[in-house]
Design brief:
Number of helices: 18
Strand order of the largest sheet: 11-10-9-12-13
Helix content: 40-55%
CATH topology of the largest domain: Rossmann fold
Shape: globular
CATH class of the largest domain: Alpha Beta
Number of domains: 3
CATH architecture of the largest domain: 3-Layer(aba) Sandwich
Radius of gyration: 23 Å
Structural class: alpha/beta
Bound molecules: iron/sulfur cluster
Largest sheet: 5 strands, parallel
Distance between the termini: 33 Å
Length: 458
């Protein structure tokens, strides 16, 4: 009973968060930066911040995550971190020779008010940035937003710093995959290739954070979008942004800067959202959908129809990031499950409106909260228990205390593997999600079934 002190009675809190359902902005910025080929993320703050961000990503991906830090001391905390950052830029290019240094700030450097573009200009003037190398930045104070907004900010910086319009359009589409797993980015690319569309996917952490074991450490793995490809995004005929919160700002920035029109969609989790993604891509690129994709769609639909009696009416509690939860909730409702508690730690009223709209026909009262915490979620579950919970690893404590079946979904997942190799987006991702849901529900049913109801066939 790890959380035995959580009371059932819900009291409004305005100045206290207990077990936050999010993590800090720089983690998302660092994750996005790793999706540029040959990029070293740099944390402008104290060593502790950088160690925390790296360890969270390393524990989630089970890969070594490389990043540098300005290593603030008491002096830099008082006088600012310019000297540390200029020295760091010099050291990083001399020792590690990356193509790009992607700087994100931290609470401390934001509170001091360090002006990163001005410091980068000084580093350039001092000859610390070699010819053909790049320094980009994003402001990520962690007292606002979450890892998702940090990811969105760094992705937008890729546009701000690199995208150029040469005046000649090229026959390619930009795809911004959103805050998803490397496996999801791989799956989105596979779908795009099946449609025969030429695309620039950015950021792209596949083959960076799900690299094969080769016995050799590579400081800069093979994956990631190249700087050349990022520059060319300004000449693309359109942008498809997946996930409004994580990808919307970059897509809109490309439209403003280079007049590349954008379509901002929900993440392609589940049948309908994948349909929308594929149909949008088909329409923009003027291609037709191959039979092989129709087969995958039919297979997903087949699982839904074959096993509908197992999904029907099951109540679910969800904790996670807004873009993921919007699509996941829609998917669960579409198969007649009942998401009745839906909570994200990332603030934003739009999330609550979207979930209310998606669940309006669910025949139960639905709790929704943006900017909430797991303490509140636990109270909801105590008052109205569910058949299944889905969310990041931290939910395991509530699942154990309340004896509720639990599926790990989202970020971070610190105690299981698979998420970086097997997608949850696209039709195949949908199949994987259904398999997980069925396995979990039926395991519990078998565990609890009296002998006369212990079924061989479902
Ligand atoms: S919340 Fe702020 S101080 Fe804490 S690790 Fe994140 S950036 Fe650093």
């Amino acid at each position: 009973m790890l959380l035995r002190h959580t009371p059932k009675e819900i009291a409004e809190r305005s100045a206290l968060t207990v077990n936050p359902a999010k993590t800090c902005q720089p983690i998302g910025a660092m994750y996005a930066a790793l999706g540029i080929h040959g990029c070293l993320p740099h944390s402008h703050g104290s060593q502790g911040c950088c160690a925390y961000h790296r360890s969270t990503l390393s524990r989630h991906y089970k890969e070594p995550v490389m990043a540098a830090t300005s290593s603030f001391t008491e002096g830099s905390s008082v006088f600012g971190g310019q000297a540390n950052l200029v020295q760091a830029i010099d050291n990083i290019f001399s020792v590690y020779n990356p193509e790009v240094i992607a700087i994100h700030t931290t609470c401390l450097s934001e509170t001091i008010g360090d002006d990163i573009p001005q410091i980068a200009k000084k580093a350039l003037a001092d000859g610390k940035i070699p010819e053909g190398k790049h320094v980009i930045h994003v402001n990520t104070p962690s007292y606002v937003g979450s890892h998702v907004t940090g990811f969105a900010g760094m992705t937008k910086s890729m546009v701000d710093y690199f995208a150029v319009s040469t005046g000649t359009k090229c026959n390619q589409v930009n795809i911004i995959p959103g805050y998803v797993e490397p496996s999801d980015m791989e799956e989105i690319r596979r779908i795009v290739e099946m449609l025969g569309v030429q695309a620039v996917l950015f950021p792209d952490t596949s083959r960076v954070l799900n690299s094969p074991q080769t016995g050799r450490h590579e400081m800069f793995p093979k994956g990631g979008v190249t700087v050349e490809a990022l520059k060319s995004t300004g000449d693309s005929m359109a942008t498809i942004a997946l996930g409004r919160l994580a990808s919307g700002p970059a897509a809109r920035a490309l439209d403003t800067k280079c007049k590349v029109p954008c379509e901002i969609l929900d993440l392609p989790i589940g049948l309908r959202k994948t349909d929308v993604f594929i149909d949008t891509l088909r329409r923009i690129a003027g291609v037709s959908v191959p039979e092989s994709l129709n087969v995958e769609r039919g297979q997903l639909l087949d699982i839904v129809t074959d096993m509908h009696h197992c999904f029907y009416g099951k109540t679910v509690g969800l904790v996670g990031d807004p873009d993921q939860l919007i699509s996941l909730t829609e998917f669960l409702v579409s198969i007649d499950m009942r998401p009745i508690h839906v909570l994200t730690g990332t603030p934003g009223k739009e999330f609550e409106n979207r979930i209310r709209e998606i669940t309006r026909d669910v025949p139960r009262s639905v709790n929704v909260r943006a900017g909430g915490d797991m303490f509140l979620f636990h109270q909801w579950v105590k008052n109205d228990p569910v058949d299944l919970m889905m969310g990041n690893t931290y939910l395991k404590y509530i699942a154990r205390d309340e004896d509720i079946p639990f599926i790990r979904f989202g970020f971070p997942i610190l105690d299981r593997v698979g998420h970086s190799y097997f997608p949850t987006v696209g039709y195949r991702g949908g199949m994987r999600l259904l398999e997980k849901i069925l396995d979990t529900l039926l395991e519990r049913q078998d565990r609890d079934a009296p002998e006369e109801r212990f079924e061989l066939v479902m």
